[in-house]
């Protein structure tokens, strides 16, 4: 029985999606709940699973097509097998296939090609790339189009970096004219090839661009800075790192300290945890902290809800889970909505200082940066300390400079004496 594979119900506020890469090809056998294709929305990537065991008999939507909820993506022949479909092939065609040059391909290449998506195989054929040369990063090691594109780029870089061969040098020397009377050579500098590539923005990237532009145009954004001596936090981590990991099966990182310090500061300065709704100020009596996460598809900000009620171990565990699922495109729509305050850590990429952009409708965002050893003066003496620069970008329509500066200073003081976080003083 033929079953229609349809676009599932899209998340709230999302009206359409773009068909991504098909994970199976026409005529391939699938099992129930196998992912057939990815659908990219402006917020999350959705998987479309098979509703039954069978064979994908027809694909109706190609990668890049725009679809809406309920549109038919493909047809699935329930209960059929790939072998059954293959048996219908004419005997002459089978014989021709056996005698074709492709039959000389090694068993390793054949198995690797079978594990590649249709788009990836097409790209490999167009660029004469062997399947065995591509490392698959898709589900179960499946080769994706992006994997093939990466190999192509590597080959282009190697080609551009390679020195010119002696044959090329000789040919050019023989064809270059002799210098003119003024000693100039008309072909002394040959133009190099200038390559451009135009690709459409993904929906997520377009949405990120829209949100950032909205923030810059619709808020009175200002940034204040401070620095924090991380010595006490680092000593605490070093002292209890092993016991913490043994007890909770999660690593003790810096983020739990910053989340705890931010929540305590938000309690003391509730205006920073507020937002503007038309002509009203909305004060939030809860602390949902957005955690900016870099993913292959762009920046995501999943939300750590009720952060004030979470222990250090719970915070670290949730952050680890969100980060891992962000890399795999498994973050859900619910996890990206809401949030009253955001923390972003550019320090993991080596940033020393930046001005983070507010995530509307929130009123502020805290930027963490790299920890660097610097000479500082303590009790009249110059000592070396691990210093991190902090940045707080805030909406000046809602938050006065005094509150912003004192809020950031509170975070600094709590981190420089972590015991105050336990005592809430």
H/I helix tally:
13
Give the name of the CATH superfamily of the largest domain: Chloramphenicol acetyltransferase-like domain
Give start-end ranges of low-pLDDT stretches: 84-110, 163-184
Helix content: 25-40%
Question: Which secondary structure elements does this structure contain, and how are they paired or packed?
Answer:
Elements: E1 2-6, E2 17-22, E3 29-30, E4 35-40, E5 45-49, E6 54-59, E7 66-67, E8 72-78, H1 82-87, H2 91-99, H3 107-114, H4 118-126, H5 145-161, H6 166-175, H7 203-218, E9 221-229, H8 231-248, H9 255-268, E10 275-277, E11 280-282, E12 289-291, E13 293-295, E14 298-300, E15 303-304, H10 312-327, H11 333-336, E16 341-345, E17 364-368, E18 371-378, E19 381-395, H12 401-416, H13 419-423
Parallel strand pairs: 12-16, 16-17
Antiparallel strand pairs: 1-8, 2-4, 2-7, 3-6, 4-5, 6-8, 9-19, 10-11, 12-15, 13-14, 17-19, 18-19
Helix pairs in contact: 4-5, 9-10, 9-12
